[in-house]
Hints:
Layout: H1 2-22, H2 56-64, E1 81-82, E2 85-86, H3 89-96, H4 106-109, E3 115-118, E4 128-131, E5 140-147, E6 155-161, E7 165-171, E8 182-186
Helix pairs in contact: 2-3
Amino acid sequence: MRTQHLAIRVGALALSGAALAVYGLSATPSSPLATTVPVRTASQETPITPLATISRSQVLANARTWHPHTAMLVPYSQARTHDGYRTDCSGYASMALELGRPGLNTVGLAGPSVSTRIAMSQLQPGDLVIDATGTADTRHVVIFEKWANTAHTSYWEYEQRGGYGTDYRTRDYGLSSGSQFHAYRPRKLV
């Protein structure tokens, strides 16, 4: 009987170690600044239920909680988290939209269960402008706030950008012919 209990415990321990390895984690503590977070892909995205909605004004209010363009901004990192969300551009957009932690990647945010592609001219507050092509180092997403001028040649946006962190500035991503950036409307926006 003792041997059977020991075998069960050893088996459970081996399974826990295997589960940790699948997610790139270890059983030994690491530096709190070196948090490893698995990046979700479109196939691993958190399902959005019809009742899981958020207002456009709440998305923008959430975006401001990371103190864009101030001394208290959240620094950019693809490996670290803030309040459970990755501190890269897609983790930031996921936080603003109140999607599951640690957040989707840009491909997941552009996925059909999360958002619908729209024309740039249809952008409204809380919509996303996404470049979902390339690698994790080249893809990007920003949160649209408003047009910067009546000609619609640039817009105000919130973003988490490499080498800086949380920012609020005018951009023209997606407005030029042949741009890899496209407008997306999150399905949960009301």
